[in-house]
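Q: Given only this backbone (353 positions), what sequence would you predict?
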């Protein structure tokens, strides 16, 4: 094992189409800008259009990141693709992305740790670099959640057609409104490179507790039934994830501060030594709780949930891209990333930039 670390040498993101505001959502279900903004901090989100999958969104983000790194796709020797909304049940979207980038032959690893994917990705990247298996790694988180949204009237939602949705359609959407308002589509991409500089992973804590898997999961489909997709599942809207929002909220505000404190203790780091807290964006209130519990100044925990909603695996790479472009993550700075995702998977990482 070498002592090589990693550095991020290029970042990019892509969100499809025009933003869909909270008022737009009120055209297809009973909700309001006031409710959504107060409970979650979200003001708008983007949705992947029909026919565009996670690999399509990922392609644009990846091209932007590779260009920012002043490389070409041929320089990438490993791809890690994180999504919970893949183009197909199988194969994973990583292989599709590799082909779209024109670098067939380069290994692509698909991971599915949902909103916690970036943290698991960092562990893999650290291992790949230290073992010498890869030097220039493309990490992409991309989501096309539009496919599980509980309405059919996209034209009315997007203002392409005047008119009202039927009371039945509104009722179907209302059943899932707490979930539907949270998620948005997009992709973030980061190019990692092995370095001898004093940079990379300084500590990591990862945990998974599958006893809580059903606090956020898709009840329909899956290979425990024959066939794995049934007509009733569609009629019963079992393609829409089931979410126990309050349970997840409580889990996040308890476990994330615990994980952060444990990591600080393990690595002999003080909260005040950390320059940035890059938290997954599931709900502004979750991040405010975590921030207050750890005594983190507001300015050290940037948020962009108001513009994108929860983009699951896309979130942390998108945030990192925005901060990089705003020259806010500088060489030598110490960051803590925190995230929790369906599984439940959670943890935090200390990364020296
Ligand atoms: N618009 C208007 N009213 C609504 C909406 C909506 N979109 N959604 C729910 N309501 C109503 C409910 O019907 C309920 O009404 P009632 O009191 O008359 O019954 C009321 O608002 C409260 O509903 P709750 O679901 O209890 O609201 P809560 O305060 O828990 O907020 C929320 C819901 C925002 C989902 C919150 O629980 C949350 O953010 N949880 C965390 C979710 C999360 O982090 N998910 C992602 C995990 S990460 C991953 O891996 C993808």
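A: Predicted residues:
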């Amino acid at each position: 094992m070498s002592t090589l670390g990693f550095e991020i040498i290029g970042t990019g993101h892509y969100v499809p189409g025009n933003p869909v505001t909270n008022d737009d959502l009120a055209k297809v279900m009973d909700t309001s800008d006031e409710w959504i903004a107060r409970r979650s901090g979200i003001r708008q989100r983007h949705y992947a259009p029909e026919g565009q999958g996670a690999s399509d969104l990922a392609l644009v983000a990846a091209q932007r990141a590779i260009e920012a790194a002043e490389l070409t796709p041929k320089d990438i020797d490993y791809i890690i693709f994180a999504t919970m909304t893949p183009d197909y049940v199988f194969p994973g979207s990583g292989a599709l992305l590799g082909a779209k980038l024109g670098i067939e032959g380069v290994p692509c690893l698909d991971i599915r740790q949902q909103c916690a994917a970036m943290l698991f990705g960092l562990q893999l990247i650290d291992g790949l670099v230290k073992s010498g298996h890869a030097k220039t790694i493309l990490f992409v988180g991309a989501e096309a959640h539009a496919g599980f949204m509980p309405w059919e009237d996209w034209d009315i939602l997007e203002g392409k057609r005047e008119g009202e949705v039927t009371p039945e359609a509104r009722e179907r959407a209302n059943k899932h409104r707490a979930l539907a308002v949270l998620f948005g589509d997009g992709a973030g991409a980061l190019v990692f490179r092995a370095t001898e500089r004093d940079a990379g992973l300084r500590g990591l804590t990862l945990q998974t507790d599958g006893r809580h898997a059903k606090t956020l999961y898709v009840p329909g489909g899956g290979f425990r039934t024959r066939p794995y997709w049934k007509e009733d599942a569609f009629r019963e809207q079992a393609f829409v994830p089931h979410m126990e929002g309050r349970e997840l909220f409580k889990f996040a505000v308890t476990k994330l501060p615990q994980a952060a404190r444990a990591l600080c203790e393990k690595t002999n780091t003080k909260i005040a030594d950390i320059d940035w807290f890059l938290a997954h964006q599931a709900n502004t209130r979750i991040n405010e709780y975590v921030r207050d519990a750890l005594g983190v100044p507001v300015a050290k925990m940037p948020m962009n949930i108001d513009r994108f909603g929860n983009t699951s695996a896309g979130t942390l790479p998108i945030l990192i891209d925005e901060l990089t472009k705003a020259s806010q993550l500088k060489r030598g700075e110490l960051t803590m990333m925190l995230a929790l995702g369906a599984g439940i998977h959670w943890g935090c990482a200390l990364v020296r930039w």
